[in-house]
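Memo to structure team: turn this sequence into structure tokens by end of day. - J.P.
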Amino acid sequence: MNERIIRKIHGLVFPALLIILWQGVSYFGWVNPYLLPSPGDIIGAFTELLFTGEIFTHIKSSLFRLGVGMAITIGLAVPLGLFIGLFSRAQKFITPTLAFLQQIPTIAWIPVFILWLGIGEAMKIALMVYAAFFPVFINTLFGIQSVDQKLKEVAQAFSLGYQARIIHVYLPSAAPHFFVGIRLGFSNCWRALVAAEIIASSKGLGYLLMEGRNLAQAELIFVSIFIIGSLGALIDYGIKYLEQRALPWHKA
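Reply from structure team:
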């Protein structure tokens, strides 16, 4: 059997045992179903959302916001990382400010963004961009700065122009670090999005989670948590797969 399939099967053993134990505890009434609904009740709530189509509305809304947030993040963080990495003199002017901003938790900016941008889409996008910016920027910068000196010397020996060096030397060498930054950025962006939707939203997975809390429906809360975790894992897997396709010489 394929080794990868075996690893996936092994990874499913613990969750399966946990669900069986959970169902058993619920069946014998050892926990309050209001606090911890049974897996069967959670599946029932998920099935209802599935048949009504409500769940797809929330997923679509969250994924759209995630895509917009990451597109803006990549458009800002990658060029800045490339610029500072290639022009080291600019680093001493920009990085102190970025180092200061990096230490401020994303959640601390929520009151500021609400004050400046209101509680609409702009606030959510700004929060996601801030959360995802630094992993993408730092890994892009590190990738450029960690290019092997021998490769630079080879490029110089072949008299490659500056643009050719960036395309054929710097970018391929920095690509693995770039993908690490993208994975971390997506993870941070996803968590920030859920937090923003919990605070102020009329649709989205974060809103669905809070709706379960407001309606005292614990099974709806757990459905939301399950979907958030599953989609986050699928996105991460998709980025890893893309990395393997784009960089076949590098093991993700």
